[in-house]
Every structure is written in structure tokens, then in C-alpha cells.
Amino acid sequence: MTTGARIWQVAVHSPLHQEFDYLPPTDVAPDLAVEGLRVRVPFGRGTRVGIITGTAAASRIDAKRLKRVLALIDTQPILSPDVFRLLLWAADYYHYPPGEVLIGALPAPLRRGDSVTARTRQHWRLTTAGHACVPGSLRRAPRQELLMQRLTAAPQGISAQELLADSGARAALRALHAKGRVESFELAEEDAAPSASITATLETGPALNDSQRAATTAIEAALGRFQPFLLDGVTGSGKTEVYFHAIEGALRTGRQTLLLVPEIGLTPQMVERVRRRFSVPLAVLHSGLSDGERLAAWRAAAEGRAPIVIGTRSAVFVPLERPGIIIVDEEHDASYKQQDGFRYHARDLAVVRAQYLKIPVVLGSATPALESLHNCRQDRYQHLILAMRAGTATPPEIRLVSLREQAAEHGISPVLARAIERHLASDHQVLLFLNRRGYAPTLLCHDCGWVADCSRCDAHMIYHRARHLLRCHHCNAERPVPAGCPTCGSPDLRPLGQGTEQAEEVLAERFPAAEIVRIDRDRTRRKGSLDALFQRVQEGRRQILLGTQMLTKGHHLPHVTLVGILAADQGLFGADFRAGERMGQLIVQVAGRAGRADKPGEVLIQTHHPDHPQLIALLQHDYRGFAHGLLDERRQAGFPPYGCLALLRAESVHPRAAVDFLAALRTELVESAPAGVEILGPAPPPMERRAGRHRAQLLFSSERRAPLHRTLAAAVQRLQKLPQTGKVRWSLDVDPIDEY
Ligand code: ADP
Ligand code: ZN
Ligand code: ZN
Q: Does domain 397-436+499-636 match CATH 3.40.50.300?
């Protein structure tokens, strides 16, 4: 940084898309400004914590109006250079305020300006003289005698807080100190890291098969340079085994691994597998931690005390002292994309970060995102394929069950019912997938056709029978079930369609000998309940597991031999251009839960459209063949990964406000938009009203990224100035994973 830099540029947590200029504090040399140091600055009527992002010789703002930085908080940058750079890059790429991005990446205590160094506490212990004292020699000072006894029993010391809890202890301690029998020392608040040898492994894994070995060799050979890999392995092919060898490789060179998992629900599973295998300290980061736990894990990663760091989405921003490799498990999973506020994609950022760090990054999945397959075709990623299940497991047999020829009774066709009988009879488990919570998608008046709609959304309310209420899954509004039809008064209100709650009831009636285990968000709201359910499933037999998407993710269910997809058609006709990809991934992931151990699996897919080309493609080819077909369609349509999209969403409680707002913006933008950038809309999304707000959107598309980003930057500048801004809430989504 230049000396004599008179202006410090500071990112402050604020919705404004800019950094702010400040004068250096009076008591500090201006060239002490280093990128990444936290400062305290006056802001508005208060003060805020900011991060220095740069310096300048002069400001565009009149020097008389510039305020001074109040204080430097850090002596060392709070973020590693790669994370600092990644965050600024992401703020730019996703067009999100840099202050919110930078400050938001810090654990809460650091955001508030706390010191990053370990907090220590005063402890007391005996001195050599104290140890030499004869017990009982202080009989005339019972409080001192008691303290001596306690300290003798605790050679590692006792915290001052604990010692001084007894009344009168302070004076006694002072007296002992004066006699030279006790001394105080500082101890870090959190446990010191166990000094485990970092190459120690506990359980040894199975001997690798040829494709696993080829993958491992390729990854290990790339340690020390940037190389993205797509580890494309069918479910049960032993991808985790490959991760573990990669981690071992990194450990051998004294480097850390950052392992990203898609959601908090899958973290305990992965943590347990890693713990069984490696005896090194782990840092685990997910949204369920307290501020203190999060800070401790963050510091263990940043200071290099944790050789393995496991975390969900936001862990991609955790600094590492000695980074060696990044692994992204289930890289296709939508939960890597943040869906509100700063809408980043953690998988994509993992690749950018690995590039900065010059280290390999492994993206693993049985159903890779089309983007990742495309990157392999373009030779940007190295494609590692595990085509076969590891060990003795064989792939399941998949068949379509046409609901045209045979009607399903309460959602279950005779073919599926017979298969369920058969698998239960041989003491196996059955998994049934239905992606719809609640009892029924809605309640219908049999006399006049009234349906229960949400008053705040363009959506039906879901009938939850167990809790006897109607609930909107979009805005969470709840209301009691009416006794009669609000329109015609008829008491004949019937559930329409089927959700998991109803399916559970139907199954219990039809298969009385089986235990039904329902797994969905309504059942697993309490902390730990999901783990408990999966525990029951690990131990049980003759169970029917019934659930939503939650069941499809990564869980190892060795006793399941039959998988039934009750309603495949839900995904086939989604309006979104990713609907086909999602449906395929879902079916393959659910199917992958069948026959994972030594028992062969069977998969039945119920559909009204057995001739749907995408379903047929999925069954005729493997997932990769199916995906390549979809990629060809995307190319023809110019959709990602062959084009770039951004979505500007706006909403307002006033009916026309969002549309008018976007229309005004569009008019301003089209005049100056670079060639090749198309702006579509404003158009309402399929659900125009949600939670009482009217919504509209503009879709930006372009074959090339650069002109699109110029347009978006211009859009954001104008949006901040448009007069309606107060009434309208807007958000920009770059590379949206949902089209609406
Ligand atoms: P994936 O992550 O690809 O779904 P896992 O890594 O969970 O697969 O492996 C599935 C099962 O196969 C696990 O029980 C694992 O221990 C076992 N496994 C992995 N590799 C081998 C191998 N080379 N030989 C035998 N069993 C293996
Ligand atoms: Zn009615
Ligand atoms: Zn609603």
C-alpha cells in the first residue's frame, strides 16, 4: 500500500453498494492501513466496525466533510488474503454491498469488534513454596487452609472465578499470595488443542478398487496446484473413501482440508465418519452453533489447529492457515446456493478460492450439476468416474409403473403394493418417496368446488390433519379447519390429493405388520429428532420409510431393498428450466438408497406419463447420458451453462408498484444496455402474490458474462436512485437456481 495514503477506504456493514472514505486516526501513522484490518468508524449517528479495503491519495468527497477512523481494532488482517479477495470478488460478482459481504463473513463476536486473540481467564495454582507447605499448618486460618487443600488437589490450577465463589476467599487468597504460596496465570478459555500426531488414522478403510485408486492418484498428484475435479460416482461407489484418501494426502504434507457438506442435517453423519477415521482435531461449522462455538471453530480453522474443517455453505469463507484441498460433497445440491440476502453459490466460490490458493478442489456427486458436467466437457475440470458400486453391492433395477393402466388406490398402485408385500415378507425395508408434506395439498368443498386458499399468497393451503389446521407452506400462515364450506355452508369438505401425513395413515392400514417411519420436516422439527429417526431405521426391520426430499440425501440405509416413488410427475412439468435436471437427480438419488449393502435393490416409479422422453432417457441411459441430453437442450435454448442469467425480483404490498418499478428501470436500461444482453419482463412469477406482497421480476440473459455484469452494475446503481425504492423491496440473483 502506498505510503502517505491520506484516505482509508473502509467497508462498513450497510446496504449501500460502496466503500466509504475516512481520514486516518490522528494517533496512527496513515501507512499503517493494511487491507483486512478492522477499524471502528463513525457512521450515521453511531459507530460501526469496518474493514479496510484500500487507501487512496485523495477522496472525491470534500476533505472537510470526511470523518476520521476512531481506532484500529486489529494488528493483523482478520481474514486471510485469499478469503479477503474471494469476498470482494463475490461482492462484485453477485452485486451485493461489499460491507455486508465482508463483515457478514465474520463470526458474530468479531463483527461486533471483539478481539480475535484467544480470551484468557485468570487461574491460580500453588507455587513451589506452596507445595512444600505441610497440610494443617494453617489451622488458625481455615479459609486459607481450605484454599490450599483445593489447590493441592488441582495441579492444573483453578479459575479465579471458581475460587472466589466462596465468601471470604478473596482476602484468604490475597494472604496466601503475600506469603508466596500461590500464583496466578492466564489460561485460554477454550481447551488447548490436543497434540495429536496429524497423520494418525484410526480405522483403516477398505482396499480401493481400480477406479477409486485412479481417482485418488489423480487428486494426490494435484496437491500443491490448482486443479478442479468432478468426482462423478454412482451412489455407493465409494466417493467418501476417495475423499478420505485425499484428506490423508493433504495431512501427510501438513495441510488442512476444507470439506463442505450440503446441509446441517448431514453434518453429524460426515463428522462421525471422519472421526472414526482420523484422530486429528476437527473444526465443525454450521448454522446450529452458538456464537461462541462458531468463533472457536472458526479460530481453530484460521489458526491451523484443526487439520480438517467440515462445514456447510458459509464455511467456504473460513480462513485456513495451511490450506491443502477443498472437497465439496453432493456438489449438485441446491442448498449450496444461498437463497436470500447475499445469494452466493458456495460450490462455485470453492472453485474460485481453490484457484486463488493454488490447491485442488474435488466436487463429488452421483448426479452432478449440468454446469459441472459441462466444465468437464470443456476440459476445465478433470472428470473422475466411479461407474460401479464399491464392494459387492449391485445397481438396483428400475421400472416405471404406469398409473394409466392401473389406478392407484390412495396413491399406491397394485404393482407397488405387491412389491411392498414381497420385500417386507423377506424382512427388508421399503422406502417410499413423496415430496409433499401435510395430509393433503388442499381441502375441497364437494358441493360447490370451493378450495382453501391462502389469503396472502396465490396458493392453496395444505391440510394438516394431525394438528387439525390449514397451513400455507409459502408464508406459514395457519388457520383452523372450517366446520363447513365458507361459500355454500356444505359440511362436505374433503382432502384433495395426498401428502405424507395421509400416506402414512393409508400405509398403516394396508400393511399392519410393518412399522411406518415418516421422515419429513413436520416430524423432525425438534433438534436431534432426525438423528433419532435414522437410528431407528438403522436398527429396524420390516419398516416402511416414508418421506420427502429429506430421505434422499446421502443417508446410508443398508436394509432398504425397495424404493417406490409415489408421484414422479410432480417434477416433470415444472415451469423452471431446471425442472428436468432436478427430477432426474431426485429419482437417481432416491433410487440410490436401494440395495446399498449385499441385498439387491428394486426401484418402482409411479407415473401418469410413462412415455415422457425425459423419464425414458433416465431409464435407458445412466444419469450421465440423461444429463448430456439435457445439456443439448440447454444449448439450443441458450440456457445456462450456455448462457448467463440474472434475475431481478421486486415485491411490494401495493399491487402495481413492483411492476411499475421494474418497468421504469427497464426503460432506463435498454437504452444503454450492451449488445447481446436481453432484458425480459417485468413479468409476474407463477405465484404473483406471496405473504401479502405482489411480485414481479426482470430476467437478464446474455451469452457472455462481461456485458451482463456491466448491465447489472448499471441496474444496481439506478435502483438505489429510483424514487419508488421505499415502497418496493428488490433483490438481485446472479446465476439463479430458480427461475422465479
Ligand atoms: P458414496 O459416497 O459414493 O455413496 P460411500 O463412500 O458411502 O459411497 O461407500 C458406500 C459403501 O461402500 C460404504 O459402506 C463403504 O465403506 C463401502 N466401500 C467403499 N469403497 C469400498 C471398496 N473399495 N471395497 C469395499 N467396500 C467399499
Ligand atoms: Zn361449498
Ligand atoms: Zn401463504
A: yes
Domain with CATH 3.30.70.600 in the chain: 644-734
Residue range(s) of every CATH 3.40.50.300 domain in the chain: 210-386, 397-436+499-636
pLDDT digits (tens, 9 = 90+) for 285-324: 988 888 888 998 999 999 999 999 999 999 999 999 999 9
Q: Is any atom of ligand 1 closer than 6 Å to the C-beta of 589? A: no
For 586-632, write each residue's pLDDT tens digit. 888 888 887 766 677 899 999 988 888 888 888 877 898 899 999 99
Cell of 36: 483486512
Probe target for ligand 1 pocket from 209, 211, 240, 330, with the most ligand atoms within 8 Å of CB: 240
Protein residue whose Cα sits closest to atom 26 of ligand 1 = 391
Q: How far is the CA of 437 from the centre of ligand 2 (A)?
A: 25
> Which ligand is the nearest neighbour of the Cα of 207?
1
Q: How far apart are CA 294 and CA 288, in angstroms?
A: 9
Closest ligand, as measured to the CA of 455: 3
pLDDT confidence of residue 437:
83
Domain with CATH 1.10.10 in the chain: 120-192
Query: What is the Å distance from ligand 1's center to 208 Cα?
Result: 9
Check: CATH 3.40.1440.60 for 7-111?
yes
Answer yes or no: is pLDDT of 643 > 80. Answer: yes
Q: How far is the CA of 451 from the centre of ligand 3 (A)?
A: 14
Task: Report which ligand 1 atom has the smallest distance to the Cα of 393.
Answer: 12
pLDDT score of 506 more than 50 = yes
**CA 475 – CA 526 distance, rounded (Å):** 20
Q: What's the CA gap between 307 and 324, in Å, rounded?
A: 9
648's CB contacts (< 8 A; 6+ apart) are 662, 665, 697, 698, 699, 700, 715, 730, 731, 732, 733
pTM (2 d.p.): 0.85
Q: Return the half-sphere exposure (C-beta side, CA atoms, 13 A cut-off) of residue 575.
A: 5
Q: Which of 389, 379, 382, 390 is nearest to 230 (CA)?
A: 382
Alpha helix stretches (DSSP H) within 437-578: 500-510, 529-539, 569-572
| Ligand 1 lined by 449 (C-beta under 6 Å) | no
214-223, 268-277, 403-412, 469-478: range with highest mean pLDDT: 214-223
Q: Which CATH architecture has domain 120-192?
A: Orthogonal Bundle (1.10)
Cα 245 to middle of ligand 1, angstroms: 13
Residue 495 CA to ligand 2 centre (angstroms): 13
CATH code assigned to 644-734:
3.30.70.600
Q: What residue owns the CA closest to ligand 1's atom 4?
A: 236
Task: Kindly state if the Cβ of 233 falls inside 6 Å of ligand 1.
Answer: yes
CATH number of the domain at 210-386, out of 3.40.50.1010, 3.40.50.2300, 3.40.50.300, 3.40.50.1370? 3.40.50.300
